[in-house]
Design a protein that fits this description.
Length: 171
């Protein structure tokens, strides 16, 4: 299900009784600037907000545990991203081609970051990760030329950073 004509939609509030934002729900909402997700949302589906070029900030509530493939891909003006503490899965291409995104904190619950999840986030400078990440997909940070990964020393993330020649700072 997608909004057939959401080109004029500028803001949306998703109430707490909505448990899942289904795949393709707000894709191509070209004027969507503001999303308010209430605590209670648990799943953000595949391409749910993809190609929403006017979104500048997203706060994903703590109740969300799953961010689907390409959920926020091609959100060209996305600068501020807060990922709630409940998230444990970030899908393939989830934040692909969000070129203005600069800093991201991955919550401690996250165990999986998908293929190309942050690819072409060319302004991404810092990503802070906890100790529970067990898998980072292929080319997750490709074309993030200024990126520094911050994570616990000895973590899987440190190994990943070193194997992929990404600067690493032990936290």
């Amino acid at each position: 299900f997608a909004f057939n004509n959401c080109t004029k939609l500028t803001g949306i509030t998703i109430p707490g009784n909505v448990k899942e934002i289904g795949k393709w729900t707000f894709v191509y909402c070209s004027e969507l600037k503001n999303i308010t997700m209430s605590n209670g949302v648990m799943v953000i589906g595949k391409r749910a907000f993809s190609y929403c070029p006017e979104l500048t900030n997203i706060v994903i509530p703590d109740s969300v545990y799953y961010i689907g493939d390409s959920a926020f891909s091609n959100c060209k003006r996305l600068k501020d991203l807060t990922i709630g503490s409940g998230v444990d899965y970030i899908g393939d291409y989830a934040f692909y081609n969000c070129p203005e995104l600069t800093n991201v904190k991955i919550p401690d619950n996250v165990t999986y970051i998908g293929d190309r999840a942050f690819r072409e986030c060319v302004e991404l400078k810092n990503i802070i990760m906890g100790n529970n990440v067990k898998s980072i997909g292929e080319r997750a940070f490709e074309y993030c030329e200024s990126l520094i990964i911050h994570a616990p020393a000895g973590s899987y993330t440190e190994k990943y950073a070193r194997e992929n020649d990404i600067p690493f700072v032990a936290e």
